[in-house]
């Protein structure tokens, strides 16, 4: 993916015919840029994902600009439906690698798994699905909830997914950016109607954390990222 940024500064150097500045990205020179009328600008393309810090120096090195900080993120778009994955069960501390995400069971008891849907709802819940409290069939008292991280392989501004068979009213999903700063929370709808969709929008979504209130075997599927 081509990533580029336009850098521009006024009053960057003396306005003589030979004035120029040298531009650096994370300490690596990007070459010299001519200054015209005390203004210079440069388009920088091919930026790698991650943190960048740009500075400009006058040609003689006597004047150095304040740094410009930039975070380049991979854009994530498409659908993750787990259909490429085999049946899998994990315990606390283990992870599942999917094409668009890494699913990690952080805290709780029982299992999280990729398992068949049973009853299919085409385009919503079907074939392989993500299961919380996998194969828990009831009993009192119910076991503690589970905390499961879903780290995306890029950033997006909108996430939607389908859920089936929740029996509790206080399961929730928290959303975070690449720095781990919270973006918001969605409470999963209870079992009415039987298959429900949840949607969340914010700039720079990079991680979702599912936190179930207590033991409740339910399915999630068809994550759409925009």
Description:
By secondary structure, this protein is mainly β. It folds into two domains: 4-72, Immunoglobulin-like, CATH 2.60.40; 78-225, Jelly Rolls (Sandwich), CATH 2.60.120.260. Helix content is 0%, strand content 54%. The protein is built from no helices and 17 strands. It has strands at 4-10, 20-25, 28-34, 39-45, 50-58, 68-72, 78-80, 88-90, 95-98, 101-107, 112-116, 128-132, 147-164, 172-176, 182-187, 195-211, 218-225. The strands form three sheets. Strands 7, 8, 9, 10, 11, 12, 13, 14, 15, 16 and 17 form an eleven-stranded antiparallel beta sheet that branches. Strands 3-2-5-6 form a four-stranded antiparallel beta sheet, with no helix packed on it. It has a two-stranded antiparallel sheet with strand order 1-4.
User: What does the overall shape look like?
Assistant: elongated
Uncertain spans = none
Count of β-strands: 17
Helix content: under 10%
Enumerate how many helices there are, as a single number. Answer: 0
Architecture blueprint of SSEs:
Elements (H helix, E strand, L loop, with lengths): L3 E7 L9 E6 L2 E7 L4 E7 L4 E9 L9 E5 L5 E3 L7 E3 L4 E4 L2 E7 L4 E5 L11 E5 L14 E18 L7 E5 L5 E6 L7 E17 L6 E8 L1
Antiparallel strand pairs: 1-4, 2-3, 2-5, 5-6, 7-17, 8-11, 9-10, 10-13, 11-12, 12-17, 13-16, 13-17, 14-15, 14-16
Which labels suit this protein?
mainly beta; single chain; eleven-stranded antiparallel beta sheet; Immunoglobulin-like; 2 domains; four-stranded antiparallel beta sheet; 226 residues; Jelly Rolls
């Amino acid at each position: 993916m081509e990533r580029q940024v336009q850098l521009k500064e006024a009053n960057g150097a003396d306005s003589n015919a030979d004035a120029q500045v040298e531009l650096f990205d994370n300490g690596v020179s990007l070459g010299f840029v001519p200054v015209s009328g005390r203004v210079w600008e440069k388009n920088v393309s091919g930026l790698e994902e991650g943190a960048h810090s740009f500075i400009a120096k006058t040609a003689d090195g006597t004047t150095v600009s304040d740094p410009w900080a930039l975070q380049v993120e991979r854009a994530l778009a498409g659908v993750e439906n787990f259909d490429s994955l085999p049946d899998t069960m994990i315990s606390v501390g283990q992870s599942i690698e999917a094409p668009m995400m890494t699913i990690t069971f952080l805290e709780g008891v029982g299992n999280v798994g990729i398992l068949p849907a049973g009853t299919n709802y085409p385009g919503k819940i079907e074939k392989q699905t993500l299961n919380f409290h996998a194969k828990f069939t009831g009993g009192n008292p119910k076991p503690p909830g589970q905390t499961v991280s879903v780290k995306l392989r890029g950033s997006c501004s909108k996430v939607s997914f389908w859920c089936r068979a929740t029996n509790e009213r206080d399961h929730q999903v928290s959303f975070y950016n690449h720095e781990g700063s919270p973006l918001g929370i969605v409470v999963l709808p209870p079992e009415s109607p039987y298959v429900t969709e949840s949607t969340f929008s914010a700039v720079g979504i990079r991680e979702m954390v599912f936190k179930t209130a207590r033991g409740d075997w339910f399915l999630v599927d068809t994550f759409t990222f925009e």
